[in-house]
Amino acid sequence: MSELTLDDFDYHLPPELIAQTPAAHRTASRLLHLDAQGGLHDRGFADLPTLLRPNDLLVFNDTRVIKARLFGEKRSGGKVEVLVERIVEPDRALVHLRASKSPKPGAVMRLAGAFDVTMLGREDDLFDLRFPAPVLELLAQYGQTPLPPYITHTPDAGDDTRYQTVYAREPGAVAAPTAGLHFDEAMLETLKAQGIRTAFVTLHVGAGTFLPVRVDKLSEHVMHSELYTLPQATADAIAQARAAGGRVIAVGTTSVRALESAAAAHLPLRETRGDTRLFITPGFAFQVVDALITNFHLPKSTLMMLISAFAGMEPIRRAYAHAVAERYRFFSYGDAMFIER
């Protein structure tokens, strides 16, 4: 097989299919079902319970999106935009920083017209900033929900609610695990009553999820790093589901990354936490995940590569061509897929 390149994961997407707002209700989105034989079925997300079986285990990512975007200015008056990527100490964070000229170590910037931060240094593309109080507290008070770059409106109170899963618990993500946005409390209750089990991992989604792949040959791409945790309770739930003949169904590509990263570290699975740079491309040997609920992803993105590895490149090409032809809504606020291997 010749080496894979970026163009292998490209597709034509009319811009008007990029969802700018969520569906009226969480479960009101559409669901494209790609079955294990490669068949395509147009459904609604509310149909999901009919596609699941007792003893199946849904694994959700319980990360919570923080209000990670701040605007401010340098002492010179130049504008800056800060996007917190990772909190490394209570009052210190690594951030993406946009400014006409990069600040130097020791530079002080005023953010949100309310407090000063000091630039300590650089770590690759990220800037190391010291905050005057706990970062999470300042973001909660002054920050903005960090909507993805392809959503063009300024975030409002509706986004603060809808760009967050109903089960979000662990603060730290700067992008939502979007497959989970389709679930509401009523659907979770329906699944529970049906004998579908649930478990959680935590993977703090970084802004790197939106970064373009800048090399043509996939083998040269360096994956961004994200923090993840697989609790012992989830490792136990996976073992129980397997023993009962159930499937492990990842809700979102971030859950896939956490599960397969943990499997790469320890088999049989056990409690695992750490940094993952796992880059899943066609040919990857999945150890844990049997089926996947996911949104539609950007052309040429690492997430297109992941789902192509999971379902096969040709079935994904057909599914995406079908979704475009049928006018599905794409990306974070868009519709979903249920993919069976």
Structure description:
By secondary structure, this protein is α/β, with parallel strands linked by helices. It is built from eight helices and 17 strands. The strands form three sheets. Strands 2-1-17-16-14-3-12-13-15 form a nine-stranded mixed sheet. A hairpin with a 3-residue loop joins β8 (108-111) and β9. α7 packs across α8 (313-325). The relative contact order is 0.20. The model has no long low-confidence stretch (mean pLDDT 96).
SSE layout and pairings?
Layout (H helix, E strand, L loop, with lengths): L29 E5 L5 E5 L3 H4 L5 E5 L1 E3 L3 E6 L4 E11 L2 E8 L8 E4 L3 E9 L2 E5 L4 H8 L14 H6 L7 E4 L11 H9 L3 E7 L22 E5 L1 H12 L4 E4 L1 H13 L6 E5 L14 E5 L6 H10 L1 H13 L10 E5 L1
Parallel strand pairs: 1-17, 3-12, 3-14, 4-11, 14-16
Antiparallel strand pairs: 1-2, 5-6, 5-8, 6-7, 7-10, 8-9, 9-10, 12-13, 13-15, 16-17
Question: Features of this protein?
Answer:
single chain; 8 helices; nine-stranded mixed sheet; 341 residues
Q: What is the H/E order?
A: EEHEEEEEEEEHHEHEEHEHEEHHE
Shape: globular
| Helix content, binned percent | 10-25%
**Class from secondary-structure proportions:** alpha/beta
Total DSSP helices:
8
Give the distance, in angstroms, between the N- and C-terminal Cα atoms.
21 Å
In total, the number of strands is 17
Please, what is the average pLDDT? 96
**Unreliable spans:** none
Largest sheet, strands/sense/barrel: 9 strands, mixed
Main β-sheet, spatial strand arrangement: 2-1-17-16-14-3-12-13-15
Tell me the fraction of residues in β-strands, as a range: 25-35%
Q: What kind of oligomer do you see?
A: single chain
Cα-based radius of gyration, to the nearest Å: 20 Å
